[in-house]
Amino acid sequence: EIYFNHTLYNQTPVASTNYDRLEASAKLLLPPAAYDYAAGGAGLEKTVAANREAFDHWRILPRVMRPVQPSRNLTTRLFNRTLPAPVVMAPVGVQTLFHPDGERATSKVFGELGLPYTLSTASSTGFADVAASNGAGNPRWYQLYWPSDDDLTRSYLETAAANGYEVLVVTVDTWDLGWRTRDLDRGFFPFINGVGVQIGLEDPVAHQKLGFNPLAANATAEQKQTAALYHTITTSRGVSPVWSNLWKLREVWGDKPIVLKGVQSVEDAKLAVEWGVDGVILSNHGGRQIDGAIGSLDALPAIVDAVKGKLTIGFDGGIRSGADIFKALALGADFVQLGRPILWGLAHEGEKGVRHVLRSLLAEFEITVGLAGCVSLQDVNRTLLVES
Ligand code: FNR
Question: Which amino acid residue places its CA nearest to atom 15 of ligand 1?
Fold first, then answer.
């Protein structure tokens, strides 16, 4: 059994242990376009802000005088695995924007700790390379931007399964890009510029459809550009996924878990149960899709009340501290995902910075669980929260 506690955080910090200071120093290290791509959201960024504010709508009401020493058991059962903590890497594309080691660094650190790593379809590193850096036997998930081309979809899923990715996360909120004003103002579109589409570029079915291999030594600049655009089109842009096509994924993926990421309404969570998926991830894509969408944590209680126990409920959006992880789990999420904090860590010396951020968040979470009077995650529930 693995325990996380502050004795595990025994390294010299390579960056601040406070999120706001971490982001500030990452900003100084990154090219402005990369920083804005990650920090930014849709429109006036009201939902980016709402994701943070939602955590202030709840305060922790701790219990005391309970036998919680020496350390708290954070283990969790998730999709047929026992995990050391219910903390997962959110799918984030084009990570080489933030450090040359990109997905290799993030997947390595999540693998070291035995926590699930989700590979994005928009990854700048391919299935096999990420599997190798993540490490044999570690929990790996694959996030699909569902292509409109069924052959390509099948090929992606087969390659994912062959490389040991065991949970399929289908992102359903980004079939077209939101109105991301920072990127629009800069004319910065990593996918269209051809950065970080490695999975599509490597795919044998994509090569057949294109009639050439854009990664071959003799591929022309024009062919590479065509391939980048083709990939942009086939990774679902402009074609909304629909419930009635889910069977196509099930046919290829078999009975391994399928999770829908980007669900916000109770009605959709209920439909997910009806259509037989294994989980939903409550997410508004970090406020990057619909400006004015509900703060993610504000949508959690109703979804938990409607579907808890019928499928697995993941959560992301605005988790910045161990206390934030505590609040999301106390409201009933089965697991949480980390996005931007890990990217800011990555900007600080790659792997070292990722390890610093992940370990310090886990340590802070573990301390919070104990100080709130809990021995294990079974004790973390809504009686420890008050609305404010
Ligand atoms: C994302 N996110 C995302 N989601 C997804 O399903 N596929 C992807 O490729 C990406 N790419 C991506 C890039 C960047 C730079 C960011 C910041 C986010 C969304 C991500 O999985 C998650 O939903 C949010 O990051 C959660 O919000 P916070 O906690 O990071 O603010």
Answer: 38
